[in-house]
């Protein structure tokens, strides 16, 4: 039986979150705490632990269905794509813990004012941040930039969402 470190109640051994207060149940391994993320917190979000001495951080980032987002982007003639970019920008910055990055609203405004040129820079920067949060040494930034140059920015955004979804698993 796992004991909740937040409220002290008992939970099943297979539980990831406390059934009483919703706090994450930390499992101990040989080297310390394991990472616990999930999107089962009602409106989305998850808990994340990064090491044995670090605090639990609540993130308001939830997985999103990529096919549904693409369909909505086409059905709404790109309006949902702007919202999707707005949310992805803020979610990736939150996961990367980059407090100095511009918000999603400013990114959308800059993309519109520069006729998409800022978008190319944004794809490149988001590729670097996606590699950082996924803890990989790939060159997603170049891939996202090239896709953006050839007018396939929605594919870059879908790949960013895939990275977010994989990190939250």
Protein model, in words:
With 169 residues, this protein is mostly helical. The protein folds into two domains: 1-62, no CATH class; 66-168, no CATH class. It has six helices and six strands. It has helices spanning 66-75, 79-95, 104-113, 117-134, 140-149, 153-168; strands spanning 2-3, 10-11, 28-29, 32-33, 46-48, 57-59. The strands form three sheets. The chain has a two-stranded antiparallel ribbon. A two-stranded antiparallel sheet has the order 3-4. Strands 5-6 form a two-stranded antiparallel sheet. The longest helix is centred in the C-terminal third of the chain and has 18 residues, at 117-134. The two termini are 23 Å apart.
Structural class: mainly alpha
The radius of gyration is 18 Å
Specify the overall morphology: elongated
Report low-confidence residues grouped into runs of 5 or more: 28-43, 47-51
> What is the count of helical runs?
6
User: Strand portion, in percent?
Assistant: 5-15%
Defining traits:
6 strands, elongated, 169 residues
Task: Describe this structure in a few short sentences.
This protein has helices at about 65-75, 80-95, 105-115, 115-135, 140-150, 155-169, and strands at about 1-5, 10, 30, 30-35, 45-50, 55-60. With about 170 residues, the protein is mainly α.
Explain the layout of strands and helices.
Layout lengths: L1 E2 L6 E2 L16 E2 L2 E2 L12 E3 L8 E3 L6 H10 L3 H17 L8 H10 L3 H18 L5 H10 L3 H16 L1
Antiparallel strand pairs: 1-2, 3-4, 5-6
């Amino acid at each position: 039986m796992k004991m909740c470190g937040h409220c002290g109640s008992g939970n099943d051994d297979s539980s990831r979150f406390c059934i009483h207060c919703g706090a994450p149940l930390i499992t101990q391994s040989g080297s310390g705490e394991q990472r616990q993320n999930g999107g089962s917190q009602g409106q989305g979000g998850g808990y994340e632990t990064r090491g044995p001495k670090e605090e639990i951080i609540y993130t308001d980032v939830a997985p999103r269905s990529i096919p549904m987002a693409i369909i909505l982007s086409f059905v709404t003639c790109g309006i949902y794509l702007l919202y999707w970019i707005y949310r992805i920008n803020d979610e990736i910055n939150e996961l990367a813990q980059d407090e100095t990055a511009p918000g999603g609203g400013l990114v959308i405004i800059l993309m519109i004012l520069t006729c998409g040129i800022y978008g190319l820079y944004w794809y490149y920067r988001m590729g670097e941040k996606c590699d950082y949060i996924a803890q990989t040494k790939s060159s997603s930034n170049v891939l996202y930039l090239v896709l953006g140059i050839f007018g396939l920015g929605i594919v870059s955004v879908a790949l960013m969402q895939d990275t977010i979804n994989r990190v939250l698993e």
